[in-house]
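Predict the structure of Exocyst subunit exo70 family protein E1.
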Amino acid sequence: MAMGGYESLVPYLEGEENLTATVKHIVGALGSNKNLTKDVKKILAELGSQLTSMAAIKDDDDMVEDGKIGIQYHLSILEEKITMVWDSCPDEAVKYRNAVHEVRNLTKRLENQCSLNFY
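Done. Here is the predicted structure for Exocyst subunit exo70 family protein E1.
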């Protein structure tokens, strides 16, 4: 279905810049055409759904990235604690053991986050 010759442009457009140009072209075409067919309305509704899904995926990615940053922060603190063990007295062995336990818990959290994102 060609909408005033606009469809013929789509195969030639590649990359993000061309995607932006295509969207601007579509918006311009829609602005000049107030009477849309059922097919065009359906296509636009599907596009809206797809864009909404993409936005939701981006939000999920941001949450995962924030989680990674938090885990990296905790791991750097734990690394400092472990390094201190070698420079201190035997009483620090308990602190070392606790730090190892904390590392194991953080590792499990990271594995759980990765498995949730895998599915």
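Residues 31-118 form one domain.
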